[in-house]
Amino acid sequence: MKEGLARTRFGFITRLFAGGETSSKVTEAWLGELEEALLRADLSVTLVDSVMLQVRDIVAFQKIDTVPRVLDAVRDALVAVLANGDRELRGAGQKPRVILVVGVNGSGKTTTAAKLAKRLLQSGETPLLAAADTFRAAAIEQLETWAGRIGVPIVSGRPDGDPAAVVFDAVNAAIARGNSVVVADTAGRLHTKGHLMDELGKIVRVTGRAREGAPDEVLLVLDGTQGQNAIVQARQFTKDAQVTGIVVTKLDGTAKGGAVFAIADELKLPVKLLGVGERADDLIPMDPRAFVDALLPKGA
Amino acid sequence: MFEQLSDRLTDTFAKLQGRPRVTDADLDEALRDVRVALLEADVNFKVVKTLIATVRERAIGENVIANISGAQQTVKIVHDALAEMLGGETATLARATSGPTVIALVGLQGSGKTTTAAKLAASLRKEGRRPLLVAADVHRPAAIDQLRALAKQLALPMESASETTLIADVTNAIAGAAANGRDTVIVDTAGRLHIDDAMMDEVASLVSAVKPTELLLVVDAMAGQDAVEAAAAFKARLPITGLVVTKVDSDARGGASLSIRAATGIPVKLMGTSERLDGLEPFHPDRIARRILGMGDILTLVERAQEHVDQKEAEESARKFLESRFTFDDFYKQLQQIKKMGPLGDLMKMIPGMGAIAKQLPDGPTAERELKRVEAIISSMTTQERVDPTLMNGSRRKRIAGGSGTTVSEVNHLLKQFKEMQTQMKQLRPMLQGGRLPRMRM
Ligand SMILES: Nc1nc2c(ncn2[C@@H]2O[C@H](COP(=O)(O)OP(=O)(O)OP(=O)(O)O)[C@@H](O)[C@H]2O)c(=O)[nH]1
Ligand SMILES: [Mg+2]
Q1: Cα–Cα dist B438/B442, whole Å
Q2: What angle do CA A186, A189, A191 make, to 5 degrees?
Q3: Which domains are present in chain B?
Q4: Residues that place a CB less than 5 A from ion ligand 2
Q5: ipTM score of the complex?
Q6: How confident is the model at residue A64 (pLDDT cuts 50, 70, 90)?
C-alpha cells in the first residue's frame, strides 16, 4: 500500500510543512493552504468547508494550534469518514461467490476485474472471469488476454450479445466446474443513460436467477482522477445496480481520489480496493490511514 | 454538461440583482457563491482564484459598490471573465501544406482516445477527406483489436504498430498513406500517466519522428482538479496543439477540462458527445459560454435539428397538425426524431430562457425512462387504436398496459394528455391558418 500510494506523495502538499518544525504555529495563510490542498485533492466543497470550520474551532477553543497537531486532527477526521463499513469482499462461502464490476466508460473495470481475479487466485480461490462487455469493440479480447496472462478460465459473450446471459452462463459454468468465485466485467456506461442503467439492473436481476442471492458484491469502479461527478455516478449506480463497494483506480498518478470521501459519507459505501498501476498486481486493499496519509503526508 | 454550472450561477445572480445597491458585503457574498459554484464544477482551484481576483479587481475599478446598476455590472463582469476563460474563437484543425495531414491523439488512460480516433476519421470522411487509422497503442491488451473493429465498422483502412518497432511502423504507415490515396492519418497512442517517465519518453520520440500536424490531448469531461496538472505536464513534453473533451454527454460540469485552456493556453477543438461514432462535434467557446451562463444556444439546436430531423416528415406532421389529423402514429414518429437530437432536458436548455423550465423536468435517466414508457404504450396499441383513440375502452386499456409493462393509470394519463393536445390544436388552428406562425419571443 505504502509503496503504491507513495508515488503520489511529492508536490504541493510539502508546502504545508514549509515551516517544517513541530512547534510552528498555525497561521491564516497556512489555513488557506490547507484548504487549497484539500480542494486540490477533489474533496467536495461541502466537506472541505466542514473540515475547515472544525479546524478553526479547535485552533480557537482547544488551543490545538501547531501545524503537526492540526494536521493530525484533520487526518483523523478524514480517516473516520473512510473507516465506515466493512471492507471485506462479500459472499465468502457462497458457491459460487459472484462479483460484478460496473462503472462509467474507461474507469478501469476490465483491468480491475483481471487484477481482482488474480488476487482471489492468490488467496486460494478458484476464480472464473466473465466477459460481459459485449458492447465495446474488442472488450472481450481485452479480458481474454488478461485471463491468459493470469491463468484464470473465462466465459465470454458474443459481440452484441446479451450481457445478462453471459453472467448467467458464467455462474452456471462455475457451479458445474466447481469454481469458487465469478468475477464479471460489464460494459462502461454513463450513469445518465437510462436504457444502459436499466440494462445493468437486468444483469443484476438475472444473476440472481443463476444463484439465489447473487450477486454478492457489486463493485463500482471509480477513476481516481475524476472530480465531483464521481459522487453523482455513485448515487445513480447505487440506485440502479445496488452497489455494495467502491474501487478507486489510477491512484499511481498525481490525483488523490478525494471525491470518495463524500461518497463514503453520503452513501455509506465502503471503499474496498485501490488500483495503483496497470499490472496485474496493482490492486491493493483500502487502508484508510495510508490513503489519508497520501493526501496529507507526514513530515516533508 | 455545462448547464448544471449555469443553474448555480443564475441563482447567485438573481440574489445579487435583488439588492437595491451592492454593498461590500454583497459583493463578497456573490463572489463566494461564484467560487463555490466553480469549485463544485471542478474548475481548477488556481483558475478559480485568478478568476475571482479578476472579477473583484474589475468590480472595484468600475465602482460597482453603491452604484445603482452595480448588480448588473457585476453580473456582466462575471460573464466576461468566464467567457475569457473559455477562449474566444472556434479553433479548427490544421491541414498539412504538403503530404498527408497527421493527427495524433495522446492522453491519460481511459480518457477516450481510441473511440475519438474512430470518430474523428468518420467526421473527416464526411468532409470529403480520406483518412487512414493507425493503431499505436501497443500496451493495453486488445487496444489494437478495438481500433481494428471500429475501422471495420467504418469501412476505413487501418494499420497497426508493434511494440518493438513502434516508431518505424507508424512512420511507414504515414509514408505509405499517399500512395494508397489517403490524405489524412490518425494515430491512436497508448494511455499514459504524465509522471511515467519511460512512457512519456516513448511518446515524445514517436512525436518527434512523426511530426504530427495536430497533436491532440484527449481529456475526460468528468476529470477533477488534477487534469490541469496532467495537461501542463503533457504540454511540457509534447507540442500539444489542441484539446478534445470527451464524455460531454455525461452530467459532469466539465470545469476541469475547461480550465485547461485558461491554465495552459491549449484551445479546446473538439468534444465527444456520445458513444456512437458520429458523436464528435466542433467546440464553439462562445456558444458554450452562452450555455454556461444560461443564455441558450439556439445555433447548436438548429444545427442538430437540420441534421437529425427529416424535413419531409416534419412538414407532413405540421400539415396533419393543422388538419387535426395528428394521430398517435405521428406522435410516435416525432418522438423518434426528437430523441435523435439528444436528451430532452439538454435540448430545452439550448433555447434561450428555457433553462429554468428544463430544471423542472425530471433529470436525465428519469426523463428518458418516461419517454420510453410513452413509446412502449404507443407500441402496444393496434393500428386502429393509434388512429382513433376513442376506441379505447377499459379492456383495451388493460391489454395495452399489460403489453407495455405499464399500469392502466399510466395508459389513461397518456390518453388524457393526447386528448388535451388535440383540443389545443383545434384552438390553435384558426390562428395558425390565419397566416404566419406566432413568432417566438427570444
Ligand atoms: N495508471 C493506471 N492505469 C489504469 C489503472 N486501472 C486501469 N488503468 C488503465 O486505464 C485504461 C482503461 O482501463 P480499462 O480496464 O480498459 O477500463 P474499462 O473501465 O474497462 O473501460 P471501458 O470498458 O472501455 O469502459 C487502460 O489503459 C488501463 O490500463 C490504474 O490503477 N492505474
Ligand atoms: Mg472494459
Answers
A1: 12
A2: 125
A3: 3-85 (1.20.120.140), 101-292 (3.40.50.300), 302-435 (1.10.260.30)
A4: A 109-110, 139
A5: 0.90
A6: confident
